[in-house]
Prior knowledge:
This protein is an alpha+beta fold. A 6-stranded antiparallel beta sheet has the order 24-23-25-26-27-30. Strands 3-2-4 form a 3-stranded antiparallel beta sheet. Strand 23 and strand 24 form a beta hairpin. The longest helix has 42 residues, at 1180-1221.
Amino acid sequence: MAAAAAAAAVGGPQPPQPELPAPGLAVDKAATAAHLKAALSRPDNRAGAEELQALLERVLSAERPLTAAADGEEAAAAAGGGGGPGAAEEEALEWCKCLLAGGGGYEEFCAAVRAYDPAALCGLVWTANFVAYRCRTCGISPCMSLCAECFHQGDHTGHDFNMFRSQAGGACDCGDSNVMRESGFCKRHQIKSSSNIPCVPKDLLMMSEFVLPRFIFCLIQYLREGYNEPAADVPSEKDLNKVLQLLEPQISFLEDLTKMGGAMRSVLTQVLTNQQNYKDLTSGLGENACAKKSHEKYLIALKSSGLTYPEDKLVYGIQEQSAGTSTLAVQGFAGAAGTLGQLDSSDEEDQDGSQGLGKRKRVKLSSSTKDQSIMDVLKHKSFLEELLFWTIKYEFPQKMVTFLLNMLPDQEYKVAFTKTFVQHYAFIMKTLKKSHESDTMSNRIVHISVQLFSNEELARQVTEECQLLDIMVTVLLYMMESCLIKSELQDEENSLHVVVNCGEALLKNNTYWPLVSDFINILSHQSVAKRFLEDHGLLVTWMNFVSFFQGMNLNKRELNEHVEFESQTYYAAFAAELEACAQPMWGLLSHCKVRETQEYTRNVVRYCLEALQDWFDAINFVDEPAPNQVTFHLPLHRYYAMFLSKAVKCQELDLDSVLPDQEMLMKLMIHPLQIQASLAEIHSNMWVRNGLQIKGQAMTYVQSHFCNSMIDPDIYLLQVCASRLDPDYFISSVFERFKVVDLLTMASQHQNTVLDAEHERSMLEGALTFLVILLSLRLHLGMSDDEILRAEMVAQLCMNDRTHSSLLDLIPENPNPKSGIIPGSYSFESVLSAVADFKAPVFEPGGSMQQGMYTPKAEVWDQEFDPVMVILRTVYRRDVQSAMDRYTAFLKQSGKFPGNPWPPYKKRTPLHPSYKGLMRLLHCKTLHIVLFTLLYKILMDHQNLSEHVLCMVLYLIELGLENSAEEESDEEASVCGPERCHDSWFPGSNLVSNMRHFINYVRVRVPETAPEVKRDSLASTSSDSLSSLQSSRRPKVLQRENSGTAQVFSLVAERRKKFQEIINRSSSEANQVVRPKTSSKWSAPGSAPQLTTAILEIKESILSLLIKLHHKLSGKQNSYYPPWLDDIEILIQPEIPKYNHGDGITAVERILLKAALQSRMNKRIIEEICRKVTPPVPPKKITAAEKKTLDKEERRQKARERQQKLLAEFASRQKSFMETAMDVDSPENDIPMEITTAEPQVSEAVYDCVICGQSGPSSEDRPTGLVVLLQASSVLGQCRDNIDPKKLPITEEEQIYPWDTCAAVHDVRLSLLQRYFKDSSCLLAVSIGWEGGVYVQTCGHTLHIDCHKSYMESLRNDQVLQGFSVDKGEFTCPLCRQFANSVLPCFPGSNVESNLWQRPSNKSIQDLIKEVEELQGRPGAFPSETNLSKEMESVMKDIKNTTQKKYRDYSKTPGSPDNDFLFMYSVARTNLELELIHRGGNLCSGGASTAGKRSCLNQLFHVLALHMRLYSIDSEFNPWRKLTQLVEEENSQQGNEEQQPEVPVLYHDVTSLLLIQILMMPQPLRKDHFTCIVKVLFTLLYTQALVALSVKCNEEDRSAWKHTGALKKNTSDAEKSYEVLLSFVISELSKGKLYHEEGTQECAMVSPVAWSPESMEKYLQDFCLPFLRITSLLQHHLFGEDLPSCQEEEEFSVLSSCLGLLPTFYQTEHPFISASCLDWPVPAFDIISQWCLEINSFTERHAEQGKALLIQESRWKLPHLLQLPENYNTIFQYYHRKTCSVCTKVPKDPAVCLVCGTFVCLKGLCCKQQSYCECVLHSQNCGAGTGIFLLINASVIIIIRGHRFCLWGSVYLDAHGEEDRDLRRGKPLYICKERYKVLEQQWISHTFDHINKRWGPHYNGL
């Protein structure tokens, strides 16, 4: 019914088929669509159009779905049973698709439209976390980015690019020549000319033009309906998300449309921007109730957003407004100041929660500063505008953002959308401020804006047409206005200045950054920046904005108790100044590079000065800063400074034309100077009660990202002020600010009213250091950019060696990305290679990974090391020391200077002429008096002076000499004007002449207690009183008494006088009141003690003081001798290298030489002073004092040497300890420990306990044990039989299958045996432990087991969090701290005994065989219950529990003893095999590395043997009998069907048999028994080799061999001839079916190579070698015999003779034959035929398996990790998008196992099984608890070991040898083979636990 009404409303006739949309038949829909399309194609298509309208009206009716959203039941009814709420929407979408396709299929329609895609842009939109690329070589805009596909298809070889993870989302710029150079476009987007794209046929998109407006209107209605104003500010995000979820399909549908290409996009653009359409559909007129309601909701939403909907008759805001009114926004601060009084004290604002800030009321500015039209008016004229409005209202849902951005490739749309975006800018800001998810929202906003504003053309257009700049500045100003508070700087009560409150969420959470970043982005475009710099109104507003930050975050020094709450607001403050003030400033500066831009600079400077003047007035500033407060934030000062610098450097402006008057300069210098003084105070610990945060501020202020926007401009501004102000005034201001004026007295005591004595020294150092920096820094005074870069780089490299990335980070680059120096630009690389050498990463055996480092070249240390720059750039004071230490080391190493050098004096770049005035500081009397006084005080050993002070004093003198005025008038004309008191000190102001001026008497004011007073007033007062020196500082004016006495000099009085003069001079009006002195605050009246005047006799000049200082420093009288007296050349050619480096003595000599060079008079006077033989110093006191200091020095020196010696000794001890104890990677150079091989003399092995320190034997009741680490290992199982290593798969085709691993092969073999043979017998025929075998290693230290228990107890009670779990028995060795988890008891027993056992006996082999059998038959009763036996049991338990059950239980009957038996001898096998692998797979290297792994096999064998003897093998089944006796025939024939037979002897693994035989013997074993067992087993092994060989060859070969061997059968040594034996084996086995089954197909596999006797011999030897190797190792451990070393080809013969298999009389002349080792216990042919019979009876039934089970030659190669590709990108691109096999999503943290190549999800919940995450699970299955994973997204390797994990580091390094963890830098990474080798080595040697230090528990969550 509603549909009919709606149709009527449209005014057309009723639609012909009203029942049409019966939910359902697609055929109907298609037919209808086709019919309508035909109707619309007719020339007169009104009827068709109306019909379509009616249909759409019905299908897209907005009523149903939303009631549905509200309430399911009714909805279902209303929808005519449409199947729940979602059905109606789906139905609607189906209709739309049908209609768009006009009756055809929708897919075909899509394809058709795509064919007409003219877009040459990629425009792919991505969201956060997408991996994209940025190429700086191709980018025009710094924001340029490319999707991976476009990047890899373009050619960027050799470019400066990186990969990055998108933070906020972005879009691909490929094809957009506004943003990137065309050379970088990929193959797909190299500009297509539009001619080759055919025109779009009209009827293809005709339906779309009709349907889409309706569809979009429907969407907007949904959005209107769904929005409810949050009630009472409670966020209703849930509701919003609900609506958005419902609309997901609609928005996705639109998104799909945009992806159809350009043709469809242009239709969409038409629809979205067409104003008529919008008006018709949304006006809410007409009688459709639904539309009316929706329009009302829209108006309510507008209103609630604080926006007015202008009536049409109003002239609508922005576009129509005349440009003139834009200055409404900027009625300056003047207007605002009046209303500042109105404080807004609404309650909610007081409950701000931030302590200390809650009390301060916010300030609301009057509304005159807002431009109403910008802030409050919105009118929507098109779908696009209203869509954006709702997008903002719903806080930028990701889907909507993506849809809006997907449209951007359409140019027309781009312009319209940008204008709409700008129109909504104020609204965006308001929504952002209110939002609770401001982070997400900020990212989405920037995601959009960066696409719009990076394009210069577009930005310019919008700036011109929509007042973009006005809007941005106003919106920023408005935003900050909401969090202003009254400034407390200077004059708290009367201050009119307001600043931002850094504690507000707006600043704390950085909410402003999207707006600021947009602003910075558009200022990077020249055309836009020019408009900004030309528009005076805008500049005023902007300075107004900047002044909100001036003086924010004020610190007040706590003087009484420590502050209780440390505020962290300073982060916010520094971030705000950098982002909101400095970055826009750098953006503007980058456009003021040439002369033509002078006007801009003048504008900025003019408004900046006005703002500063307003600021000084607002805070009521006169001439003294308020004490004990400092703010680090002076953005106005810094704007001013930076534009001045630019003006002089680039624009050739005359500096004086942009400088203000003297009075303003005096004010300007105060606050920056206050910061410098405060820095010194903070470093002197005077602010310690303010907590750590104040140190944080001091560091941040100089830190590399901030320094060139903060400290550099400040110092530059001070340099400018100093160059223009009176130097005496400036110098005295400095010392007063640093509070050290009182210290500068000749008297030995003084009183400081403003500074505690303990801070004086460091404050004086601070003041002098500051002067040195001020006078020698040239960053803004004439250095070129490359020189600056070089100086910065040298300073950083001198502090420490640096990696390339940390250098990039530490070199302060211009914070604005568009500015000249791009990090990684060419100049950076060329300067780097000029000043530094690259040190490639090295690997220490300890495993600590080094990165590639850059270290300064020698000539840099020699000529360019600049301590001043280092001091300026150090964040931590220790870095200065570090630089000096490195400099000292360089000088020692290069032999330039042996002692402790002083910082070198470095020549400076010449000053720019504009700043010449700066050097007047060095030639002013005030400074000279200070220097003279300090030299004198140092010489007299006054208190509180340090070497650093002297160093700086000399530095200043040297600077003065280097920069002296050109002409030296010997006596300057005396300065006219009132006589000042310092005229009586020095006649002129030139340092060169003042240096030689003698000062005879000085009058000082001293406390009455001072020693000077007690003497005759004219006595020589070279006092050395080291008592506490105090003095005063009251302005004093004394008339001159006699010409010989200098006056008391007071810096403060001088400064006052100067200031007054300047003020009077500048005040033209006669009636101006002289400003009051505000210094009354300074001296607390009444606190100064009684002062009296004393007159000191000095009789020194600076020169004479220097010469005496030389004597003092060298500790010899008359040590200075003018060098030019010997060598007159020196004066002509003064640059002498010997003076470049050295200590104070060198510095003094250098200065005296320079002084002599500068004037003949000085030269003469120096000679005179030296000629006067220094008289012995009169008073004894001084010598005593000097002696004291000299003694002190000497004592110090001695102490230092002692310490050095001790340290060196300690280091060497430690080193040797490390070599023996921690030897982890180099088993070669090691001394065997006494455990494994004991000397025969010792009667019993003696062990040292590392806990109690006692040594003694291990006994039954107090056993000693070895510290061991037990771990399960699957390394053996990873051996493969082919040589080429497995590669990590990097395409879908390459997959790794583990069929060919050692573990898999052994598994298959065991299960085959178990199928056909008796279980208990199977378990004796093989070894397990290839996977999950237990490996035992020790550090070689021993301890008493009871000591160990108490040690564990103490660890348990220790609260400190260890990296291991004590409950699991883990601990670290008390001596070497190596990780361990068990103790292996040492078997008590004397070594002599074992030596007796080793003597060869002459018994025959038959006797020995009998003895062996008897010994094995004795049941091994478990020894009585002693402590030792208990420990043996417990360690056995530990060994079992080390590995998982599945790696222990192979028996078919669970819990059978055979299982334990198998497990125990397999432990021995595992350890022997692993040792073999550690030796490289063979024993050629011999016994050298015996103790390398400090083997504990001997002890392990005892424990295993003890337990194995508990299981006696029933003698009938003992394989020993089958090997050594002939069994009666009928027994073997009894193979009853029902009972499974035993495993034939030839199927037994001989090595396993060996271990069983030996472990069944009572220990210790006798050597001849051992040899006997080996001999017997060798016969079996050899037979197996022959059988294997016979199967390997083909029928013809077999019959030939059978024949040749048979001929020799009766010769004497037939039993030792392989030919005879082989022929016998063949004939025996031919009786069975072993050879029959060969089909033709198998013949093909057999190698066609003819067997020669040599190749057969080699085959037999290779077959037997593995057994011989293991046996030799075993013999070596049991009997302590060394292994001989040999060549690979003779390994067999050497090992067999070592084992006693070779008869001693064997001659080695003729070629060696393996068969000669045979020693048959019974006639060979009989026993062989007995063995072959077993096989024949088996092959009767199972011929196939019979052959498969024959033991094959073992071909295992050493285990390796997977081979990795050269370039990391190949791994990354394949794996980071690979989906998880379980949940088919792309995992957040994908990882890949480097052992087997399995792809796993780190921490992925999808793959969790029983609370184990996938990596942990995989580490158990693949490595029995050890996993090595490469984290794809981080490029690092993570090791899982049991319940712990650690980050190992990365094996991929960039071109500079650095890791890139988390791929933050995104530079190309290449495999570092050495590192990978180290990793593999640690895996194979099981040393992860020992080498990697940082382990933590993973709680199964990885």
